[in-house]
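Most newcomers find our protein records easier to grasp once they have seen one. Read left to right, the backbone structure tokens trace the chain's path through space. Once this layout is familiar, the rest of the handout is easier to follow. The record below serves as our worked example for the rest of this section:


***
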Amino acid sequence: MTYEGWGSPSVEPPQQHYIVCGGNALAHRLVLELVEHYDVPVVALVPDRTRDHAPRIEQIPGVAAVVEYTSLTDEALRAARVETARGIALVDGSDQDHIHAALSAQGHNPGIRIVLRMFNQRLGDNIERLLHNGTALSGSATAAPAFANAALSRPNSVRVGDRFLYVAYDEDIDSGQVCVVADRIDRQDLGRLRLLPDLGGRSAEFIELARRFGDDGPVRPAGGPPGAPGPAGGPVPVVDPEPAADPDPDPDPASDPDPDPDPAPGAAPEAAPTPTPAPHPEADDVADPAAGVAALQSLPSEPSVRIPWFRRLRWRLLDTLRYVTSARLRLVLLTALAAVLFSFAVIWYLNRDFGWTLYLALLDLAGAAQPDQPGGGSGGTGGTWQRVAQVVITFCGITFAPVATAIMVEVLASGRRGPARNPGAGTREHVVVVGLGNVGTRVAALVHELGVPVVCVERDPQARGVAAVRTLGIPVVVGDATLETQLRQARIHRARAVVAVTNDDAANLEAALEARAVRPGLRVVLRLFDDNFAHHVYATLDNAASRSVSYLSAPAFAAALMGREVLGTLSVFRHVLLIAELRADEGSGLAGMNQHDIEDPGGVRVIAVRHARRPREYLWNYADRTRRLVPGDRVVVAATRSGLARLNTPVPNGD
């Protein structure tokens, strides 16, 4: 049901609700998160009910009201009943509009929880000090690392304490895994992906031993002989099907809107090391040998980009030249440098004395050489050819002096870099970023910081990201030319990957197909909102990855709106795994719970504990699972979206 605008609502005014301000993709995903996973009343405040994602928001079952206002004024906030709301999320508009609306909402309701989307993170940190109960997040900053790492075929990681957590697949899984994330991955049908399986960690090892050496004898794992090595180097785990109480252990993904399946009734995360009945015939699809496995692993430092040092040096030299010179000036300098080196080689060949040759060349380059007198002796020179070489070096030195002076004046005196230019002919092994919105700008900056060359493509010369990447010295192809022409100007035939992150799914797919037409097999990373569209891309294109900015960032915004601290998000294909840190406070549901109470099969896994008496020490895979949390303790969990939502108001197990 919806409001018909300002005036008498068609439903009773909502109470203790949450307000989502915006009509973009993030607002759409955030409303879905709150309604489907947190089961709270939501009022959507949209600028236009007929544009962008507003019509889809209106169609979401469970939305209490949709209010239309073109700007976030006090009147709009009152229409959304901000004075009785529990929280408000500002996710569409400029940073200035969000700051003004956040302060206005706090004035109407001092205790309201405020989450605002800010592109400028430093400004957001300062704004948090002005809010009594608020936080500032950046959707692009949350999602950009996933795009950058996917382009470089590098695992995306989240820092927890002194470790970096990332998701490893199949043969990359090692013995140092923290927990199993997915025990069945069908890359042709991502709807069959199961996150956080019921069996995993220490319990899986006990169950495997019981099956192999119990009274019933060893059980042959599907797809191999007994004891065959698995993806992590150990025995292949045999996973039982869901209990008989669940008649459909693998529902049709098209009929289930929740990509994170709930656990079957009665399933438990831990099991005693006792013999287990043989699997049912229906379990063949669960233990499918073709299905992949994913695990959460940790590293002592962030995964590095493996690029040879000589390539880094070459890129750095080219970037430096591009930073201080134009294309014509670089041609003049390179030609003069080649002439000097050739003349130096001639003099050295005639004299066979490197020290003497270097001495003569430097004097000639500085214009201080003494010419031979007519009729005089050779003076140790190599004759006519040496004189010619010295003349060439002298004239080249005359060229270098004014050019070097102009460069020093431009760089040191004016401090300006000038407009970015098209990539040079030597640009190769680079990443092409198509679209310089908030996400594209951050992706380009992240890849550039890793030392990998970047070339950006943007049709709108007034786009906000154009000026931002130009300050970094990144080449930008800007213009109204066709996409194919722009990609060729960006030297797509020499690129290592293309990242298409515009706001249009069709435009991103077009960029990927155009790039593949020029260079087949090129690594492709797409920004796609539609899940079905993304599944078709995975099934059709090889060496491709798909990410959704709203899908990656919406869970973090929803958790922040509920007062949870999300450390980061990790992608398991199109699914999202949240790494969150929860604090047990007085009166909270976590106080008095142990790991068994917190963990939810298929939804939540405790990966580390921090005791109140030693707050800086992370106890990974804490052994004492029966110890109850006391106020001040913290737990780090890996959770699905629905799993973290169920921890919003946890209740300890009673009688």
